Amino acid sequence: MCNESNNDCQRDEMKSEQTCGCPVGEPGEEGFPGMEMDTYIGVKLLHATPMTLGEYTDYRRWPIPADKDPEDAGYLVVYPDGYQSWSPRESFESAYLKLAFADRLHQGDINAFTGPVDAMKLDDKTALVTAVTRSGFVLHETSSCVDSRNFDLETGRLIGRKRIYDKVWAHLGFVLQWARFGLRTVSE
Fold it and tell me: For residue range 146-173, what is the model confidence (pLDDT) as tens digits?
């Protein structure tokens, strides 16, 4: 159990995580005793470049904490308002997708997000095409022919892949719109 008076239990702002065994928890759990909190989702469009923790602390002219490894891989992150921070590589790469352009999507962005597209023969005339995106979301499409003698799995895969890519274009377009322009304020 976490003792809140324990001075060793503090948030590590460089890694956005706690440095002791104290759980961060969910609202109402041990990490937020007696606190009512709502859940939010957000999308950010930012600029970043690979940078070790040591390079970041040199850049900011800060001393590196004694308990940190200056060779830790990560990113210098610059937000639209100019705020700068450093993010560990694993945290950053699990949250952000590198885009070819800041104001539009490119086929390479779609390919990078979609990942491999697999196809299998569902029946004599139908190919089932599946892609698992970087977010873990699974997309399925089917492609069928009129006559089973004309069935070709590769043709079905190409048709299904195009349909999946079209869906991903729409989904990532939604995300890019949100990241660039934010959410409109809703009058209550």
Answer: 999 999 999 999 999 999 999 999 999 9
